[in-house]
């Protein structure tokens, strides 16, 4: 040995060297690399030169480096390391292939600067006879007060390498990571490894046995990380159509997927043909022999997911045993690629639904902006978070945020159903608490034994918060089912969560169910409302109250002149956890409302003269608004019919409100009755229901909403 550790030392190099006795028999350790026959007679039997021929599955070595990355100590006595020129004082990078020097040097210096280890990366090392040794290399920082690095090297036997590669490839459901892990493992057989996947696999679509000429390949992984020649296809790029077709034809000979080997430059040029295809597929001058192995899903007929390519020097030909190893590794891991494809498909479908539910507009009276940030690809899938904002027909604006329990398609389906149901019920005029009652019943029905539980998914405990903004009264009405309270920022910049009574989530047990409450708060023009899901403020290391307080502080710094979409992105960037485990959703709504001079309200007794008094008020107001005569006549007729209906069929005082909107006039007539006006089949000459027929013909739309005191019939007239 060149370095002998002391028993009191605790540096990584000494610890690794001390562990060598558990892997390297003493007789082999005592012998020099050139004298495998010498050794300690009391030791264990020696390790054969060929690690595949003996029982040893791995051989461990260690190299110590100074800050200049020169070798200061080594422990490479195992026979498998014979031929490595690791002389004391020589640069460690002399052991590397030239193309790997920049990447490995960058990693070595990164560990020096940060003190964070770089663990278990496959690397090739040069032997003096021109052959190469593939090892698993880890870079460890030296312990204080020493400086430098310890590089541990593990030379793995073939079977162990196959097992380790398959284990590593199956750890991720991200298709890019899966392909990259496969390429890293393939690097043990060559200088460059690439994985090209059918475009349908890359996007998560279904893969079928389409014609050879129609295949489209995209480069999903390429190793090692280095500068590549101009025109060479790198990660994320599509292969030229000719290259895709040639690779497909090569591995689908006689309509059956087969591995092929193109041994030298002459054969490569003959097979690939055009200079453009050569530039796209051949990684360099040295690497001119290639083994192409198809990724195949068993079936009738078998389905080819893509092609794995291993390139190396033509003077080191692929042996039959190596080709069998490559085929075995790719065959073992093809199903991992397909699992990643299926995950990608589900992820894409759920994400498309999620994006579909994001708000497009808040109407003329509210400015809205939203951010949806899914969890990392390695999570269980896109979750059931949603936000939505939409103008209601009666001029108000609805803001809805919800969080369905779980991830994946089950959560997405429930999310879509609840979101659409909430929108339909709110558009029909139901109050927020009534909408939550319907959603609560829906979640319970979805979770019965025949549907939800049988599918292995439960939506119980999902949360939802509904906010309605009235642009005339500048008030928000809010109801919540177990959701986080919104943050309200006043025009002066004071921010605090709205005080609402906690309520269980949707679908709670009967004993826990309580009536949903509607809370009302003032939101003058210029106010900002922030609604989010728990992924933005929940952190295992931070109490939830502190997370909500941080959100309030962040939104309080949004300036009235700031662009709302960029402000929402800034808030998410500031608050989202570094290791995001759940989806993050944020909705910001800036209240604008109507100006005081754009609306008028009159309260009239329900007497026979009420229609005439209402017409007089409307005529005077529209004259001040300089409304054209046709619109004025229609508005007066509409008000007359609605007020007459109240006097004839309802009770209590009549409330008339007229609002000047951007596109027309919105007329509202309220009373204390609870009957719902319905448009019957009768014509204009029928006395019963004549008023609603007039309303229907004069307006662009009309409807009813319910209040605590009764109902409001609203109708819109185009200006």
What keywords describe this structure?
five-stranded antiparallel sheet, 25 strands, alpha+beta, elongated, disordered N terminus, 719 residues
How much is the radius of gyration in Å? 36 Å
- How many strand elements? 25
**Unreliable runs:** 1-9, 21-58, 449-455, 683-688
Tally of individual helices: 17
* Mean pLDDT score: 77
What is the terminal separation in angstroms?
95 Å
Instruction: Tell me roughly what share of residues is in helical segments.
Output: 25-40%
**Portion in strands:** 25-35%
Shape: elongated
Largest sheet: 5 strands, antiparallel
What structural class results from the helix and strand content?
Answer: alpha+beta
Strand order across the largest sheet: 2-1-5-4-3
Question: Mind explaining what this structure looks like?
Answer:
Helix 5 packs antiparallel against helix 10, helix 10 runs parallel beside helix 11 and helix 13 packs antiparallel against helix 14 (564-575). This protein is an alpha+beta fold and 719 residues long. It is elongated, with a radius of gyration of 36 Å. Strands 2-1-5-4-3 form a five-stranded antiparallel sheet. A five-stranded antiparallel sheet has the order 7-6-10-9-8, sandwiched between helices. A five-stranded antiparallel sheet has the order 11-20-19-16-17, with helices on one face. The chain contains 17 helices and 25 strands. The longest helix has 38 residues, at 320-357.
List the helices and strands and how they pair.
Elements: H1 12-19, H2 26-30, E1 58-65, E2 71-75, H3 101-114, E3 118-126, E4 132-141, E5 149-156, H4 158-169, H5 175-186, E6 192-198, H6 199-203, E7 217-223, H7 241-251, E8 260-262, H8 265-272, H9 275-281, E9 287-297, E10 303-313, H10 320-357, E11 366-373, E12 383-391, E13 397-407, H11 408-427, H12 432-446, E14 463-470, E15 475-481, E16 487-489, E17 495-497, E18 519-522, E19 528-532, H13 544-556, H14 564-575, E20 584-591, E21 599-604, H15 610-624, H16 629-649, E22 654-660, E23 664-671, H17 690-698, E24 701-706, E25 711-718
Antiparallel strand pairs: 1-2, 1-5, 3-4, 4-5, 6-7, 6-10, 8-9, 9-10, 11-20, 12-13, 13-14, 14-15, 15-18, 16-17, 16-19, 19-20, 21-22, 22-23, 23-25, 24-25
Helix pairs in contact: 4-5, 4-10, 5-10, 10-11, 11-12, 13-14, 15-16, 16-17
